[in-house]
Amino acid sequence: MDADGSDDEVPNLVQLELNARITAEQDEEVPKLVASLDETTLSKVPITIVTGYLGAGKTTLLNYILTEQHGKKIAVILNEFGDSIDIEKQLTVSDTNSTEASPIPFVPLANGCICCSVKDIGVAAIENLMEQRGELFDYILLETTGLADPGNIAPMFWLDDGLGSTIFLDGIVTLVDAKNVLKSLDEGYGDEKKQEDEHDHQGPLLTTAHLQISHADVIIINKTDLVSEEELEKVIDRIRSINGLARIETTTKSQVPQLEGLVLDLNAYDEVTDADLRFASKGHSHLDPTITTTTISFPALSPSQVDKFDFFLRTILWEETLPNATPDQAFEIHRLKARIPVTDGCMLLIQGVRNIYDTNEVKAPPSAKGVEAKLVLIGKAVDQPALKESLIATLGA
Ligand SMILES: Nc1nc2c(ncn2[C@@H]2O[C@H](COP(=O)(O)OP(=O)(O)OP(=O)(O)O)[C@@H](O)[C@H]2O)c(=O)[nH]1
Ligand SMILES: [Zn+2]
Q1: Which ligand neighbours the alpha carbon of 56 most closely?
Q2: How far does the centroid of ligand 2 lie from the alpha carbon of residue 48, in Å?
Q3: Which residue ranges does the record assign to the CobW C-terminal domain (predicted)?
Q4: Which of 17, 60, 119, 185 has fewest C-beta within 10 Å?
């Protein structure tokens, strides 16, 4: 885990101050605290990380979801102080269980969802919260603070099955403020600290906005009411050039047309489909000087090249150097997806975030016959020719 991943201890809960008004109607709908978690019947709960720059519309999205009648039991976790106040103000809060005897800082809502606030985030913390609550939820949504780097958060929740966690990472949704995002990308607007850091290194600016866009599986461009159609097109093009893998949606007031595929059921970390990689492979532009998406295509691997390919990945992700080639510029990989056919009829599906990656070997579908291998990289200087040269040289070595 990298330097920032030090959130191993269970964080303190931030007590929501509730001035609860209990109505008879709500009282009936609010589920009571019952059974504790039963390991044997437990299925894993997907967690979606909702990120986005300051004021982009994260809380607006979560409020929208919490008040909609979608028939789903969603636990919303806020990783910030300010928003607990928003939620308290904006939602009719029922607090049947929070007498002195109950330390649980959840706000149960009329549609079966709950909301709570944590100071720090971590798998243990969230599992504890779920256990405390004694109920199963269909989904967990975690709103990070506006300055969070999702590349540090995602690996915490992207766990191997073997670890027996009760939650799994479904994906990362990044809210973008259509009006301010270009400024944020160009100037690190409101982001002075990052900017100072960047001045120490040379090269184009890497802002929080870049990090939040490059790690996203879904990007919701919000506040479209504040920009013209031309401006919106520019925003979409810039974002697409940074992240060619993410699904992009535009909204006003964070009102997503549906939850499935945009906020829930993203499955962004459990498979790599052809469709996932198709868009990224349509050539790349250089609208953003800092972060870009690039696709490296190469022939299917022979079984003896599989280990060599893995060595290539380990070297670029863990050593941050190129085997058998010299990089022209320092590179930095934020996100990686690959579909690699092997000539023995297997297919390698590879997922990566920062320096962590996971390879799944599946039987290649018939449609994969004669298809090239594709490695998609999102990051800094990932489009330099030396990367492909290194790969080809390593496979041939
Ligand atoms: N004009 C306009 N305003 C919006 C839209 N969506 C949200 N807002 C407003 O923008 C402000 C910030 O929205 P939030 O949802 O609090 O943003 P956030 O990302 O949670 O902000 P932080 O938690 O402070 O980082 C609020 O006043 C919202 O009402 C939109 O589509 N158009
Ligand atoms: Zn917020």
Answers
A1: 1
A2: 15
A3: 328-393
A4: 17
